[in-house]
Amino acid sequence: MTTTERQLDTADLTERVKGMYQEVALHPEHDFHFETGRPLAERLGYPAADLDRIPAAAIDSFAGVGYFLDLAAIAPGEAVLDLGSGSGTDSFLAALAAGEAGSVIGVDMTAEQLTKATDLAADAGSANAEFREGQIEEPPVEPGSIDCVISNGVINLSPDKAAVFAAAAAVLRPGGRLALADIVSAKQLPEGVTCDASLWAACIGGAMQRDLYVEAIEAAGFEILELRDNNRYRFISDRADNATQKYGVTSISLLARRQEESR
Ligand SMILES: C[S@@+](CC[C@H](N)C(=O)[O-])C[C@H]1O[C@@H](n2cnc3c(N)ncnc32)[C@H](O)[C@@H]1O
Hints:
alpha/beta; eight-stranded mixed β-sheet; globular; binds S-adenosylmethionine
């Protein structure tokens, strides 16, 4: 199922998304349609003491939309996959929770984000976190090898969300968890918004209607265990804010469990 099959030039979209997140990696101090960095992370609920334990430069380029690591409850020894890991904030926090006996693989398609996260992991001696180039619709990870898939602010950017949820189910062991924060909308967005690649790259244009988003996760073989609104997330440009007010574009965090027999 593609979200907007006829209207959106997905090749152009991919390049726009890469261009935007290249900027977020290299120049996080620039202005975007959305907030970035440590003040955002703290407002969303990331504990300051946890942020103090990971590379500050990763947090500078943090562009997540909600806190969900309490839902993920990553235990020592677990294998974690971060879909759209960006500069690595959630991956580094997950690596601390998984400990030396665990591991984290971050997957992202933007070269500058991967380079930044990889360099920071090396500098910090974070041996249990690695970053791989790939698409979240087809992550380069062994099927059934992961205990917990995490993702923050990314799946809304994919034109094929069903493929992302199916890929998450495929890499998880039976009973494994999917914990994420993402952007959804109360109403179906009109073409003027869904075909605006700049609004799409800013995490608005690709927002799926909330109930359809939940249905897509369930259709991939997950049971939703918890879902909450992240009222502290805001878009900041006027254009982005107008679209979000009009169509009820909001951030949610959720936890789902892969059923023993994935469909
Ligand atoms: C909003 S940023 C979030 C990054 C990170 N999760 C964070 O919280 O800072 C979205 C990230 O997803 C990546 N991305 C978007 N679509 C992708 C796709 N289809 N496959 C792989 N990576 C993707 C972008 O390159 C970018 O780094």
